Amino acid sequence: MEASLRRMEDVAMSPSSDLHKPREAPVQELTSRSPSQAAAAQVPVCPMDSVTPTQPLRRLPSRTVPSVKTIVGSGEAKPKRKRIRLKTPRRREQCRNNQARYRKKQAEYAKGLELTVEQLKQEISVLEMQHSRLVSSAKTSAWYVVVEYFHIFYNGARSTRQISSGPEAWLQKSEAQQQLAFLQSSMSDDVVVGDQRGVNALLEQWKRYTSYFDDLQFQLDRMTRISEDSIVAAASLNVTISELTFQRVFPNLLARHEGSSQEHKIALLRSKMLGQRLYLPCRLCFEWDETSKRVVRMERTVDFLTPLLQVVETIADATFVLENSLVSQDGTIREK
């Protein structure tokens, strides 16, 4: 046992060069192989102690070598130099002008869209009214016509002289056409309105009220059917007195009586009435013809006395204002 251990120690203590010497292949073996195999067999084996296993191999970074075509084709173009503009007062003024033009263009575009939407709404309203008059027999009744009359003349009627020439002109013309189409389709051609006859006479009265007063509003309060052919409506006509009201409706308040007490009274009444809001009670009676499905007569009364009394404060002054005015008891405004 001890002898075996000593032999193992002798082997371990022998030089490492002897252990790692490459073995020489037998001559017979080399001669029997092919030339390529023989050359491979004669490659010396690297000694084990020359390799350090603790140091990992590092990968070299790969580099892409550009081809000659790439180098020649690129030409190494120089980058464009940016032009630097100095913020001079003139340049700042140009920027402000450009921004102002842009904002103006945007505002005009938005306004154009709004007007287009309003035009479409007006067209839809006209088409709906025509459709309802031609197709829906249920709506061709006196009750429907009266309600629609108050709706379509809620803000009166513009005269052709009042229609502007701007972008809103189309809307105003469309509204006037809608009102005329309604009167022609719902009232007879010779409809009786007080002492006047015809659709045009009725429309002319609406134009005068709208022109001679400011901020007109025509509101329906209630309706009552008194017979199969008649409907009575109570309403309120709300207007504001303007300078044109004195010229076209109350010209007696513009008369001059220099040096007299009458002149002072007229001036005082004018100052009290100018800019005042009048709420005029109205009563309208519509007579319906079932055969033609149209209104053949419309009687109306407009009360100017009661609201004027609240403005001028005395019955004598209210009577004085109305005595020489151009408005009649039924509300018709006459020409001078």
From TrEMBL:
Question: Which intervals of the chain are annotated as region Disordered?
Answer: 1-62
Residue ranges annotated as compositionally biased, kind Polar residues, are 29-39
* Key words, A-Z: Coiled coil
An MF annotation (GO) of this entry: DNA-binding transcription factor activity
Q: Record's InterPro entries?
A: bZIP_sf
Which residues lie in coiled coils?
A: 103-137
State the superkingdom: Eukaryota
Instruction: Identify this protein by name.
Output: Unnamed protein product
- Origin species, per record, is Phytophthora lilii
Q: What is the lineage of its organism?
A: Eukaryota, Sar, Stramenopiles, Oomycota, Peronosporomycetes
